Amino acid sequence: MESSNYKLKIGELIGQTRAWRQMTQAELAKKIGTSQSAVNRIENGNQNLSIEMIEKISEALHVELLAFNKKGTVHFKINGGRELTGAIEIRSSKNAAVGLLCGCLINKGRTTLKNVPHIEEVNRIVEVLESIGVKLRWINGGADLEITPPMKLKLDEMDVVAAKRTRSVLMMMGSIMNSYPKFKMPYAGGCNLGKRTVEPHLAGLREFGLAIETKNDFYQATVTDSQVTEKIIVMTERGDTVTENILFAAASKEAITHIHNASPNYMVQDVCFYLQKLGVRIDGVGTTRLTVYGKANINQDVEYEISEDPIEAMSFIAAGIVTDSEIEIRRAPIEFLEIELETLRAMGLKFDQSPVYLSRNGQTKLVDIKLYKSKLVAPIDKIHPMPFPGLNIDNLPFFAIIAAKAQGRTLIHDWVYENRAIYLTELSKLNVRNQLLDPHRIYIEGVSEFRPAEIVTPPALRPAVVIMLGMLAAKGESILRNVYSINRGYEDFARRLNSLGADIELLY
After folding, report:
1. Cα 63–chain centre separation
2. Who contacts 440 (Cβ-Cβ below 8 Å, separation ≥6)?
3. Of 334, 335, 365, nearest in space to 351 by CA
C-alpha cells in the first residue's frame, strides 16, 4: 500500500472515531497537545504520524487505534472463497471470564478459574489485578489461572492505562466497595460503541452506600455503611455487567438483596454459579428476579470452570453459512442460541443438533450443531436484539453478513448501541449492498457476490469479525489491517478458522 493511501485510511479512522466520541477537532487537539489545524491534516491524510502520536490519539479517544507489540501491528491476509470442513469445539466465554476476574476480588481465599481464554480483554484485567497486588499464576499449561488476593489491595497503584482500555474494570466497584470505604476508579474504554453510560452501575451500587464524585479522568468513590439488612433493587436497565456489579456488592454484604429486572444472560449465570461455590445463596438463577443472601468476609479456596461462549459459537455458525460450508460446531451453549437458530431456520438454514449434555461446570446445557448447505431467504420481519432469552445483542451483527447470502432485503435494527450499525456500512467494500437508515438501522440486500478488499479493522469487536467473515467468503486476497479489536475478544480465531480449511495469514 502506498504510504499516502495508508495515511488517509488511518486519518479516516481517527476522524470517524473522534466523531463517534462526539469530540471536535479542537477538543482532540487540546488533549494531544497540538493544534486544530494539525488534527485536520491528520484526518485528511496529510500529516506523517509517529507511533508516539498514534498512542496519544488512542489514549485521548479511549480506543486502541493501532496495537503495537514486540512483533508490530498485526494484520490478516485472507485468501477467501474456500469451503470449510470439519468440526470446531467452542471455548470458554470471554464475557464470563472478565466478570469472574473482577468478582474474584470479593474472595479473600484462592480462586482457580479453569479454561480462561487468552485474549486481550482478559490480559487488560490481569494487568489491572497484578498492579493492585493480586498474585496471579497460570497453571496446567496456561489453561487455568490461580488468583490469590493480598491482605490489602494497593488501589492507588492501579495500572490506569490498562484499566482505561476495558469497560470491564467497572465491575471491580461492586467487588471492593464493601472492603474499601474510599477508592478511585479510572474512566473505562473498550469498544467504541457510543456513550454507554455508567449511570446504571452507579444507581444500583448507591443502594449499598456508594457515592461517586466525577473528576477529570476518574471516579472518586466513597462508601457509607448501609444498615439496611434487606433491600429491593429495581433495575431500570437490564444490563449484564450492571447485574454482575450489583451481585458482587450484594454477595459480600451481610444482607438479603432482591434484584428485580436482573439480566439472566450467560455471563451473569456464570457469576451466580461461582458465588454459590463461595457459599453465597442465590435464588432465581436464570430468571429476572434474583435474591442474594450475602456473606461478609468470604474466604474460600475454590475452583470454577468457565462456561462455553455462545457468541463464539455464533461466529462459527456465521462462518459456515457465508462460505457455503458444512461444518460441525461442538459444545455450543444451546440455551443462549435458541432464538438465533430458530431465526436462521425460518430463513432456510438446514442443521441438526445433538441431544443436550452438560458443560464441565455441571450447569450449562450444550449441544453439537451440524450445518448443511442451504439457500437462505430474507426474514419477513426485522432482525433485532432483545434481553435474554431474546436474540443476543452481540450476535446481531452476524446477521448482517448472513443477510447478504439471503434472497431479498433484511432490516437489521441495532437499537442498543448508538453507532454500531454505522460500522456495518464497511461491508460495502466487500460488495455487500446496504442502506443505512440511521445510526441504528441498516438494510442489507442479498444475494451478494462478495469481492476482496483492503479494510482497516473497525474499533468494535463484532463488526470487525463480521468484516473478517465477509473476506472469508470473497474469492481472492483481502487484507484486514490492525486486528487488535478482534484479538480483544477471540483466542486464536484465525488459526482455528484455518483448522477448518480457511487460508488466513498473519502479517506484521
Report:
1. 14
2. 413, 414, 415, 417, 418, 421
3. 334
Q: How far is CA 187 from the centre of its chain?
A: 17
Using DSSP bridges, classify how beta strands 289-293 and 326-333 pair: parallel, antiparallel or unpaired. Answer: unpaired
**pLDDT digits over 461-507, tens only?**
888 999 999 999 999 999 999 898 888 788 889 989 999 999 999 88
Buried b or exposed e, range 327-364, using 16+ CB within 10 angstroms: bbbbbbbbbbbebbbebbeebebebeeeeeeebebebb
Q: Contact 249/277 with Cβ under 8 angstroms?
A: no
pLDDT at 65 (0 to 100): 66
Where do the domains of the chain lie, and which CATH numbers do they carry? 3-60 (1.10.260.40), 75-91+309-507 (3.65.10.10), 94-305 (3.65.10.10)
Report how far residue 87's alpha carbon sits from residue 327's, in angstroms, rounded to the nearest whole number.
6
Residue 26 has pLDDT above 80, yes or no: yes
465: preceding bond cis by omega (within 30 degrees): no
Residue 471 neighbours by CB under 8 Å, 6+ apart: 76, 78, 80, 430, 450, 452, 453, 455, 478, 480
Sheet of 135-139: strands edge to edge?
Answer: 135-139, 144-148, 111-114, 302-305
Cell numbers that stand for 123 in this block = 490480559
Buried b (16+ CB within 10 A) or exposed e, 63-99: bbbbbeeeeebbbbbbbbbbebeeebebbbbbbbbbb
Measured distance CA(291)–CA(283) in Å, rounded: 5
Q: What is the pLDDT of residue 129?
A: 94
44 Cβ contact list (under 8 Å, min separation 6):
8, 11
Residues 6+ apart with CB under 8 A from 102: 125, 168, 169, 171, 172, 175, 244, 248
CA dist 133 and 108 (Å) reads: 13
- CA dihedral angle for residue 251, residue 253, residue 257, residue 259, rounded to 10 degrees: -50
Distance of alpha carbon 301 from the chain centroid: 29
Cα 92–chain centre separation: 13
Q: Where are the beta strands (DSSP E) in 128-217?
A: 135-139, 144-148, 182-186, 210-214
Which residues share a beta bridge with 139? Answer: 144
* Amino acid present at 502: A
